[in-house]
């Protein structure tokens, strides 16, 4: 009779250290990849929308993001010479504000120009006031506008339409951003969904 080694089934816990070591290696590699390549886009955006800004209001006074602490900010970027999208959106926003009743008191709608060369404090104040007395227009230096647009991930670019210095239009992204009373990102609202849907979304986000 051949001699046989006694066999017994390997208990699964014997592999536990190997499995744990494996997970540790995977975590380390993932952490290294995030450190080296940057966080995946959804994580990055959730962390990065909005931030500190320094701008000028319609009265020519300096304002910052802290000026609006305690209220939700509804932020829209555009420019007063915009032929279509901005006036349509701001008209819808003004109607939405009228529809949400007392919720509107917790809200500060802001229109930030991406065309500061033409949108002086006077120009932006009169333009914003034409849509709603609650809407505040903000402008700034080209560098200040570039900074705040970058923080909100807003795209804008100018296109020449003629030989004169004022002969240009601006391309810009069109999204409504909501920031909470402590200045943190609270959500986005589609700018093209109409006043009723904007009002419904505002009621959901603003509490
Ligand atoms: Ni526009």
Secondary-structure topology with pairs:
Blueprint: H1 16-37, H2 41-48, E1 54-57, E2 62-64, E3 72-78, H3 85-99, E4 107-113, H4 121-131, E5 136-139, H5 142-151, E6 156-160, E7 168-172, E8 175-179, E9 185-190, H6 195-205
Parallel strand pairs: 3-4, 4-5
Antiparallel strand pairs: 1-2, 1-5, 3-8, 6-7, 8-9
Helix pairs in contact: 3-6
This protein binds nickel (II) ion.
What does this structure look like?
The protein has 207 residues and is α+β, with helices and mostly antiparallel strands. It has 2 domains: 11-45; 49-205, Glutaredoxin (3-Layer(aba) Sandwich), CATH 3.40.30. The protein is 37% helix and 22% strand. The protein is built from 6 helices and 9 strands, in the order ααβββαβαβαββββα. A 7-stranded mixed beta sheet has the order 2-1-5-4-3-8-9, with helices on both faces. A two-stranded antiparallel ribbon has the order 6-7. Helix 3 crosses helix 6. The longest helix is centred in the first third of the chain and has 22 residues, at 16-37. Bound molecules: nickel (II) ion. Nickel (II) ion binds at residues 78-79, 82, 85-86, 172.
Any descriptors?
207 residues, two-stranded antiparallel sheet, binds nickel (II) ion, 6 helices, 2 domains, seven-stranded mixed β-sheet, Glutaredoxin, alpha+beta, elongated
